[in-house]
Write a sequence for this structure.
């Protein structure tokens, strides 16, 4: 099993970082910084809690005047690159919220995001003063640096993983869309992925808003088309009728796609940790070519006996009328960090554009 990400924050890391601070700020006590950070509770702390602990301890041993502390971080940030240094922008979020520090905090967030990421830290400022901060995000969307442009999108995602949800933008994403509009033709794939992920977040709470965006922008630019397609992935998985038509699945959702369909599972009974083989045979109806999305879905048994469906993509392509599609997929029933298996009967279905066309069952045992 891979080592927990939180373990990147160990004594060796803190000592290397502390030595960098000490080289600039001679009264910084590296050993006390480490001892205060890593106490008896350290092993139980999760990743983001550890990051907060480092930030809080750093505050104790840096100058108490915010701008002096930031000057020290500015002096060493070129050598502090990557995910572990998220506590740089976190320091800004925790201690630079005051109006008297706002401008310096914006400079710091922009600077730190280039070498790590300020996507979590900016959310504190959005919640504090959404109008002022979203004006800053609009300004950053025009930056010549792709990391800063990405920050303008990633930081205001309504449902950013690991980040506090921005409930106001889940209810009304208008301010977010203004930022995304500035980035809809961005030449950087790094930025476009963020814009697409933001759009996907919006689609979960405001699907009709996203439908209108697709209607307005689809076909205008190849970069934009990529963003729209990737940003609508949740709506496509849910077979949203308007989105399916806008992305060329229309002919395949007006009436049944298949004239016949068959699905089998072998073995029909197995233990957790083993694998099964899914075989499917799909006879596409005769007529014009059509764009279809083929998935298999498993209704996983949960801890209390309820079931929850997970979809797995098999194919997304244009097929000829009358074509016969066959395939085999091996599914492994191994335990994952994101999914725990429970014994019981599991329903398995083949879906085309969100509609079930064939079903079977298998029994999972301990």
């Amino acid at each position: 099993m891979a080592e927990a990400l939180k373990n990147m924050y160990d004594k060796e890391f803190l000592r290397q970082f502390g030595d960098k601070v000490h080289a600039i700020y001679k009264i910084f006590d590296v050993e006390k910084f480490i001892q205060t950070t890593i106490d008896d509770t350290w092993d139980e702390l999760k990743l983001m809690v550890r990051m907060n602990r480092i930030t809080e301890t750093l505050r104790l041993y840096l100058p108490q005047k915010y701008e002096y502390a930031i000057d020290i971080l500015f002096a060493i940030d070129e050598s502090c690159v990557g995910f572990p240094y998220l506590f740089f922008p976190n320091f800004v979020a925790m201690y630079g919220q005051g109006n008297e520090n706002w401008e310096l905090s914006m400079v710091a967030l922009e600077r730190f995001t280039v070498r790590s990421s300020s996507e979590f830290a900016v959310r504190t400022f959005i919640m504090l003063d959404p109008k002022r901060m979203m004006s800053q995000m609009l300004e950053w969307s025009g930056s010549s640096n792709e990391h800063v442009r990405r920050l303008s999108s990633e930081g205001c995602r309504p449902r950013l993983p690991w980040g506090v949800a921005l409930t106001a933008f889940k209810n009304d994403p208008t301010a977010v869309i203004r930022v995304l509009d500035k980035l809809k033709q961005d030449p950087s794939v790094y930025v476009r992925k963020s814009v697409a992920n933001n759009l996907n977040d919006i689609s979960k709470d405001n699907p009709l808003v996203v439908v209108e965006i697709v209607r307005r922008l689809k076909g205008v630019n190849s970069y934009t088309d990529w963003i729209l397609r990737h940003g609508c992935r949740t709506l496509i998985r849910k077979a949203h009728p308007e989105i399916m038509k806008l992305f060329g699945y229309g002919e395949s959702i007006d009436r049944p796609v298949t004239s016949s369909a068959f699905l089998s599972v072998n073995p029909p009974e197995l233990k957790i940790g083993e694998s099964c083989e899914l075989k499917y045979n799909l006879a596409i109806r005769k007529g014009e070519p059509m764009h279809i999305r083929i998935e298999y879905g498993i209704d996983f048994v949960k801890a209390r006996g309820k079931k929850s469906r997970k979809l797995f993509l098999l194919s997304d392509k244009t097929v000829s009328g009358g074509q016969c599609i066959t395939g085999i997929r091996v599914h492994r029933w191994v335990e994952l960090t994101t999914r725990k298996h429970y014994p019981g009967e599991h329903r398995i279905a083949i879906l085309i554009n969100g509609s079930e066309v064939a079903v079977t069952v298998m029994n999972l045992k301990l």
